[in-house]
Amino acid sequence: MEKGKKSGSGRGYISWNDDMDKALLDTFVEYYNKGDRCQNGWKSHVYTAAIKNVREKCNVEITKDNIMSRNKTFDKHHTIINGMLETSGFGWDWNKNKISVDSDSVWEAYVAKNKEANG
User: Fold this and answer.
1) Please, are residues 100 and 92 in contact by the beta-carbon 8 Å criterion?
2) Between 111 and which of 80, 94, 118, 119 could a Cys-Cys bridge form, CB atoms 3.0 to 4.6 Å apart?
3) How crowded is the C-beta side of 36, counted as CA atoms within 13 Å?
4) How many other CB atoms sit within 10 Å of the CB of residue 70?
5) Residue pair 54/69 in contact by the 8 Å Cβ criterion
6) Confidence class of residue 6 from pLDDT cuts 50, 70 and 90?
7) Measured between alpha carbons, how far is 86 from 64 in angstroms, rounded to an integer?
8) Alpha-carbon distance 98 to 85, whole Å?
């Protein structure tokens, strides 16, 4: 089994790719639809299932800590996207499955208020 790409302090950081994200999100959606979420996150067996699914589909060594860290990243992205969609001039393109922006001026105004968006 391939180890995830490690970098930094050696504390188990891995680089995620689209296939890994899909395997993880497929698991989360499946268990969410079953109601297997608790007040403070996922039930423990969901993490076990997610680890198994990502390992099997992507042939990488992954831990619960990796899953929890990626989930925090998803939460941050969700917050940012929701904020954009609540802003006038932003919408969702259902055909392309991504955010749409009405004009360059809408984007420029958003970046002016959210400096981290200009990346």
Assistant:
1) yes
2) 118
3) 15
4) 19
5) no
6) very low
7) 33
8) 11
Q: Which DSSP symbol is given to 96?
A: T
Do residues 1 and 59 make contact, with C-beta atoms less than 8 angstroms apart? yes
- How far is 47 from 95, CA to CA, in rounded Å? 32
Block residue for tokens 């990488």 = 60
pTM score of the predicted model: 0.77
Mean pLDDT of 13-19: 93
- Please choose, from the candidates 29, 60, 63, the residue with its C-alpha nearest in 3D space to the C-alpha of residue 48: 63
Alpha-carbon torsion (83, 89, 92, 93), positive or negative: negative
